[in-house]
Design brief:
By secondary structure, the protein is an alpha+beta fold. The protein has two domains: about 100 residues, Orthogonal Bundle (Butyryl-Coa Dehydrogenase, subunit A, domain 1); about 70 residues, Butyryl-CoA Dehydrogenase, subunit A, domain 2, CATH 2.40.110.10. About 40% of the residues lie in helices and about 15% in strands. The chain contains eight helices and five strands. Helix 1 runs parallel beside helix 5 and helix 5 runs antiparallel to helix 6. It is globular and about 50 Å long. It starts with 7 loop residues before the first helix and ends in a 14-residue tail after the last strand.
């Protein structure tokens, strides 16, 4: 039977997060909502995001085994719940970054974790990551037999990979620092070669062409 009573450590995580959420995000919405367009409002959230990082809240979304301070995924849920209760927009930046880091957390070697996670463990700056998986033609059931598979490909040439394809629906598109991208590991879409060889690549976002489509929310 599941125990629904928080431990002392979990209560401390929740209270710490709730305090910083109120202090950092309490008046954030009023400060950026008055700005003229969505892109400007998005960029205006960065100082608040930086304060959350300085408070160690991004580290609370990264497991201790990887250099963060999270004891469990349940603890991460407590952090996100308290942040979302105060400001859903800025909390989504932390959610998006933690999702972008998840392939590194779950699948990389220790050496790779130390290399790629380092910028996100300093409690300084505004390091942002995102997971780029969705594609313009859709990715639901992308490994289903007979399906289209992933259209993005990566072909190895010498010491480098040549990546070709499009990704859509990324969080924080305009402020992203680097991203993890899912693609097939051959030069053809997965469905065409009849394989499930999917790889995740960590890619710095500098130099990648980004087309931003802004939609108003009701």
């Amino acid at each position: 039977m599941a125990c629904l009573v928080l431990s002392e450590q979990q209560r401390a995580v929740r209270e710490y997060t709730a305090t910083h959420a109120r202090e950092v995000l309490g008046n954030a919405f009023d400060s950026y909502n008055k700005l003229g367009d969505q892109l400007t409002r998005c960029r205006a959230t960065q100082p608040f995001y930086e304060k959350l990082i300085s408070a160690g809240l991004l580290g609370k979304l990264i497991p201790k085994s990887c250099g963060g301070s999270s004891e469990s995924y349940f603890d991460m849920g407590l952090v996100l719940e308290e942040l979302y209760a105060v400001n859903s927009s800025i909390s989504s930046q932390l959610i998006g970054t933690s999702l972008g880091l998840l392939p590194i957390v779950l699948g990389d070697s220790q050496d790779q974790k130390e290399r790629w996670l380092k910028p996100f463990l300093t409690s300084k700056g505004t390091a942002v990551a995102s997971l780029a998986h969705s594609e313009p033609d859709g990715t639901a059931n992308f490994l289903e037999k007979g399906g289209k598979g992933l259209g993005t490909t990566a072909r190895k040439e010498g010491d480098y990979y040549i990546v070709n394809g499009e990704k859509v629906s990324l969080l924080q598109t305009q402020i992203i620092r680097w991203l993890t991208r899912s693609r097939c590991s051959s030069g053809q879409p997965i469905a065409a070669v009849g394989t499930t060889r999917v790889r995740i690549f960590a890619v710095f976002a500098f130099g990648i062409r980004r087309t931003v489509v802004l939609r108003s929310r009701t």
